[in-house]
Amino acid sequence: MGELTLEKVTETYFDVLKEIGNIGAGNAMTALSQMLGTKVDMHVPQVELLEFNEVGQAMGGEEQIMVGVFLGVEGDITGSMLFLVEQKSAKHLINKVMMGMGNPESEEFSEMELSAMKEIGNIITGAYLNSLSTLTNLCIYPSPPALTVDMAGAILSVPAVEFGIYGDNILMIQSQFFDEVEIDGYFILVPDIDSYQKILGALGMPV
Amino acid sequence: MSEIIKVGMADLKTCLPPNGITTLGLGSCVGIALRDTTNKVGGLAHIMLPDSTAVNLAQMNLAKFADTGIDELVKQMEALGAVRRRMVAKIAGGAMMFAFQSKAGNIQVGERNVEAVKQKLAELKIPILSEDCGLNYGRTVVFYPETGDYVIKSVGKGEKTI
Fold first, then answer.
1. Active site annotation includes B29
2. What is this structure's pTM?
3. Among all residues of chain A, which has the CA nearest to that of B141?
């Protein structure tokens, strides 16, 4: 197998990667929708090769305050998975899952709310990775989740740093989801550069 | 009219008064603000990784690494008339965004970034006047070379000037 560059991945396998995002996020949405008891929709996934200075703008600006659940991806492939929800949306999401016991009016998050959010992130990113694992026959499992409430730029710098070692771009598979009213968020799968080759290989793509 | 110049991730720029210079959402990255105390030539670098020597890159973005980024910023400031022995530094960032990060190599990359920055500045004999580094939250910074004020904003922690 030759050296697979991010540019080549993006151009040649764009649709395949989009489909991965579609299947993964589709499963995650089903899990979320069941948890909430409401319908959740998603946009067509975006696969983008971004320069580092564009990363923050990908999601409404570097300073947009987001709740981020981060999971390391381990097993046959490595990388990271992020579940990002805008602050207000997160409050609503948590309140729904906690059956109205949250406090959607306040900007602060209680311990209980943060814990609930972490668990939501855990379950739905689990669904995402599971479907990817089934699809590719690769062993993929998430690390325990970590959570932070912070600026989008600061959160996204975490996966960006991993790519910094190899080059000046980051390749993300990004899916945006929303419901009728108040929830709006993103799933971002960021496989490490070597893992793209494994994923595409497992799907029968000559790389 | 003064304006605020924006520096992206893995990027660096110079700045002359009365303008300010900013970088948004520093996570584990470090924002290094330099200033010539006499002629007020300033600059800001947003570095991502501690060390360029461990990495083999054909076309290298100098601003990405602590060592090459600081060298390049000093060089660009000198081109505007700044003198290295009159320069002072203020630094911020180097947080650990998530309490737990899976890969051993990049654990505490924030901390390693800060260390590398300090080492490089010591090598160039540029004193660090103040810093706001570490912990677990992101920072947006604005630097004003006119006064040397380095304003740091964080989510839920308000604003402070170092």
1. yes
2. 0.86
3. A63
